[in-house]
Structure to design on (411 residues):
């Protein structure tokens, strides 16, 4: 009876329009499963046995990706309650913790973020210590470095959003670094050269820090900019680079194994 | 011909990039003005640190025997806002504990140099005008500049 139902299901047009190959019981069909699935095709058709050895890979890249998915899911849910405005940001966080069902959602997002920063570093450490950055993987190492920076930027932009004293002053201190950007920061090297007569072209009202904060200090403009960067700008770039990163792992010969 | 097309395309892309960058720099800021009038000199008592302008403008107005100066309420360590502690007669930064004398000179904590002073002059109507676009640093010897200090 079940067998009949199963056979019927697999003979329908709906099934055959989704799965264009037979059962994955031959090497050819197993290959097709991976090649014809948009989600699986980033993954290599074949994985070396050593590739899943935890003692070698620590699975840190995989855990980082998993944590990224956790952050996307929890972050999306938080967005239903949070307003990136000076009036509401702080009380919305209190509300999320005290009144909204599953008050742990914000903690999941926060602890997931901390964990992701740690695992991304450990992943980098593993890749370095096993020499997996060497040719032909040097391009992917660079993509990984950019992804590391994006992870830290996600962490930094998210830090401001609770809009409490810690957020405020941590970002004040952090964004002060942008003052020292060469040529683009008003206290940076070369800024004093950017002059037209007596008028300095780079000052507190138009330098790199100003563009980041949309003002001379951390205020409403900075909160909104950090929110947009945190929820849309940086994640979109990170997702694109992650796709490249995973695809290159496969193209560069799969997960590196012990020599 | 193809060269002209590519040049036009590159120019259009460049113009788009410049315009997008410019978009990130707003023309109007909803911030307190950089220059403001702080009232008449007689409103400031000798020996006090006036904190009325700290919240909105980030300025301490200090009056002593000789005159008035405007201290920039930004810690020279990492940029937090120091508090004036009347009982201890000092400015103390809550972030990392830097301490400054009433004059703005640093003496404890990680701050590497004294608080800066803003330009302070008399406006046409006789009020004190504080100009945040110009600041004077002690370590550069700028506190001797006439506009860094308003003589009583």
């Amino acid at each position: 009876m079940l067998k009949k139902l199963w056979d019927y299901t697999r003979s329908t047009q709906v099934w055959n329009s989704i799965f264009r190959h037979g059962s994955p019981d031959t090497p050819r069909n197993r290959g097709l499963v991976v090649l014809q699935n948009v989600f699986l095709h980033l993954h290599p058709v074949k994985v070396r046995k050593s590739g899943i050895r935890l003692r070698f890979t620590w699975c840190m890249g995989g855990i980082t990706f998993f944590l990224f998915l956790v952050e996307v899911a929890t972050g999306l849910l938080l967005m239903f309650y949070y307003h990136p405005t000076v009036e509401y940001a702080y009380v919305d966080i209190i509300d999320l913790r005290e009144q909204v069902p599953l008050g742990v959602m914000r903690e999941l997002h926060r602890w997931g973020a901390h964990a992701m920063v740690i695992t991304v570093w450990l992943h980098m450490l593993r890749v370095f210590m096993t020499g997996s950055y060497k040719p032909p993987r040097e391009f992917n190492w660079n993509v990984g470095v950019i992804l590391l920076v994006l992870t830290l930027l996600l962490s930094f932009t998210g830090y401001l959003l609770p809009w409490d004293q810690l957020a405020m002053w941590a970002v004040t201190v952090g964004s002060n670094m942008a003052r020292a950007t060469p040529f683009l920061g008003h206290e940076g090297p070369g800024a004093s050269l950017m002059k037209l007569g007596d008028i300095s072209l780079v000052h507190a009202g138009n330098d790199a820090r100003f563009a980041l904060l949309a003002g001379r200090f951390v205020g409403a403009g900075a909160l909104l900019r950090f929110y947009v960067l945190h929820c849309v700008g940086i994640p979109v770039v990170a997702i694109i680079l992650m796709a490249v990163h995973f695809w290159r792992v496969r193209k560069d010969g799969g997960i590196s194994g012990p020599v | 011909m193809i060269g002209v097309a590519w040049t036009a395309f590159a120019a259009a892309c460049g113009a788009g990039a410049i315009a997008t960058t410019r978009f990130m720099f707003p023309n109007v800021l909803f911030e307190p003005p950089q220059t403001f009038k702080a009232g008449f000199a007689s409103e400031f008592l000798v020996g006090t640190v006036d904190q009325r302008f700290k919240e909105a403008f980030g300025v301490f107005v200090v009056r002593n025997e000789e005159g008035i100066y405007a201290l920039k309420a930004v810690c020279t360590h990492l940029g937090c806002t120091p508090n004036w502690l009347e009982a201890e007669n000092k400015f103390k930064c809550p972030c990392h504990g830097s301490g400054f004398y009433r004059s703005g000179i640093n003496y404890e904590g990680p701050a590497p140099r004294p608080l800066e002073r803003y330009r302070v002059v008399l406006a046409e109507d006789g009020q004190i005008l504080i100009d945040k676009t110009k600041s004077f640093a002690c370590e550069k010897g700028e506190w001797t500049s006439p506009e860094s200090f308003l003589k009583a």
The first helix of chain A runs from residue 2 to 11. The CA atoms of residues 76 and 179 of chain A lie 33 Å apart. The mean pLDDT of chain A is 91. Chain A touches chain B at residues 169, 172-173, 176, 205-206, 210-211, 214-217, 219-221 (CB under 8 Å).
